[in-house]
Design the sequence.
């Protein structure tokens, strides 16, 4: 999966968890909690959705590595390649 495809997958799952968000309005560096206002339960739901879609385990210590769409794409592509 390419970087762009991974970012799209992340944004799709993000907007399922937070349906009030619009994909086109989310910037690469928007922080999911600070800028997009997801709470901790939303983050857990996002992690579960990413696991279900991609089969990637994301330990709690790595949540900071998926804090923005750009960071998440890098992290998830790396996890798939490993």
Sequence:
């Amino acid at each position: 999966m390419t970087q762009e495809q991974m970012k799209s997958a992340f944004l799709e799952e993000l907007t399922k968890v937070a349906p009030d968000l619009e994909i086109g309005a989310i910037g690469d560096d928007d922080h999911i909690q600070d800028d997009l206002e997801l709470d901790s339960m939303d983050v857990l739901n996002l992690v579960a959705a990413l696991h279900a879609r991609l089969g990637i385990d994301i330990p709690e210590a790595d949540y900071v590595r998926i804090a923005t769409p750009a960071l998440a794409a890098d992290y998830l592509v790396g996890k798939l390649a490993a």
